[in-house]
Amino acid sequence: MELGLASKRILVTGGSSGIGEAIVRLLSAEGAKVGINFGHHPGPAESLAAEIGASGGEAITIPADVADPEAVAGMFGKMDGTWGGTDILINNAGIDGKHALAWEADPEEWRKVIEVNLFGAFHCAREALKRMVPRGEGVILNITSVHEEIAWSGYSAYCAAKAGVGILSKTLAQEAAPHGIRVLSLAPGAIKTPINRSVWNEPEGMRDLLEKIPMNRMGEAEEIARMAAVLVSDIGSYATGTTVFVDGGMTDYPDFAHGG
Ligand code: BGC
Predict the structure, then answer these.
(1) Would the CB of 147 count as within 6 Å of ligand 1?
(2) Considering the domain boundaries, does residue 254 fall inside one?
(3) Is ligand 1 within 6 A of the CB of residue 144?
(4) Whose CA is nearest to atom 5 of ligand 1?
(5) Known active-site residue 155
């Protein structure tokens, strides 16, 4: 089965580390032209693009804070200027924010998490759809989280944002389906990336985490990248307006493996 992603123009936000980086690597290996967005640190994005270029692929780096609508418009302008458009958008950029119970949380920190995760996905989807609707084709994949569904004490902004992105995907899917565009979400569980290093770096944190995962291991970024590639390819041609969970069973109520 061919993914058929060769020469597709794909923008991956937050594409220089963790899950985003794995997605960029896999799509480039499939022959896609990839825009690697990053927020603040150009170094990792530039070396990734150089590595892809050296192995015969095509990648560009695009700085933009996804929470800033003007910067997002500029980012799509760069895709237009370089390759004449964007066929597929993968909204991956995200932050989980500082742990804080709601009554201790700083409203500005809370706002920042919503702005990056939820507004960021909206601003990017909006610019993508402006271009995709007249062409009558395109795919938008939003990377959410198991916390689209599972409450997580201390991370109310993150959970609210991810749940928001889940229903945003469904709503945009409804709006865009008549125009030949698919919009859906991929919800990873605990994937070993820099965002959760403090947990997997420490034996007690790891033990606690594994109890929450029926498959008894963390996922690898590559396992998310493979599902992302399938969902944005024509293999996923009938999937829209839904969330695909790739979480080793984390959303399968592992506590109910016994008792009840
Ligand atoms: C978070 C990770 C966490 C995982 C499972 C993800 O959305 O970014 O830090 O390990 O959810 O709780």
Answers:
(1) yes
(2) no
(3) no
(4) 190
(5) no
Say what the pLDDT of residue 179 is.
98
Q: How many domains does the chain have?
A: 1
Distance CA 122, CA 144 (A): 13
Q: Determine, yes or no, domain membership for 255.
A: no
96 lines ligand 1 (CB under 6 A): yes
CA–CA gap between residue 35 and residue 48 (Å, rounded): 11
DSSP bridge partners of 4: none
Q: SS3 for the chain, per residue?
A: CCCCCCCCEEEECCCCCHHHHHHHHHHHHCCCEEEEEECCCHHHHHHHHHHHHHCCCEEEEEECCCCCHHHHHHHHHHHHHHHCCCCEEEECCCCCCCCCCHHHCCHHHHHHHHHHHHHHHHHHHHHHHHHHHHHCCEEEEEECCHHHCCCCCCCHHHHHHHHHHHHHHHHHHHHHHHHCEEEEEEEECCECCHHHHHHHCCHHHHHHHHCCCCCCCCECHHHHHHHHHHHHCHHHCCCCCCEEEECCCCCCCHHHHCCC
CATH number at residue 59: 3.40.50.720
Statement: the pTM of the whole predicted model exceeds 0.90: yes
Query: Which pLDDT score is estimated for 141?
Result: 99
Domain, as residue range, for 228: 9-246
**Which residues of the chain fall short of a pLDDT of 50?**
none
Give the nearest ligand 1 atom to 196 CA.
9
